[in-house]
Design brief:
This protein is mainly alpha-helical. The protein is built from two helices and no strands.
Length: 119
Amino acid sequence: MFDLSISEIAIIAIIAVVVIGPTELPRALATAGKWMAKARGVMGNFRTGLDAMVREAELQEMEKKWASENDRIMKEHPAVPDDSIVSENQMEPLDGPPAEVSKPIENPPEPPPAGDPKP
C-alpha cells in the first residue's frame, strides 16, 4: 500500500516506542486504528457516490442513444394509418365445429382381450 519495507517498519516501530512509550503505545495504536477506519468509511462513501454518478451518466447517455435510434427507425418505417389496412391481413372468425363431431360416441369399440394372439 505505502510500499514500506520491513526495515522501514522496524525503524518506525522503534521511534514510536521511544517517543510514545511502551505503556501508551496500545492506546495510540487503537486511536490510529479508529481514525483509519473513519478515513476508509469516508473514502468508501465517496467511491459509492462517484460510482452512482457515473452509472447515472451512462444511463442518460444510453437513453439518448435509444431515443435517437428509435427516431431513426420510426422515420424509416412510418406507421400505417388504420384506414389503409388491407382486409387480407385482418383475422376472420371461424365457423363452429361440425354437428356430427359434437355428438358423443354412444358405444365405443372394446379393445381385444389381452390373452388373444395377434394374427
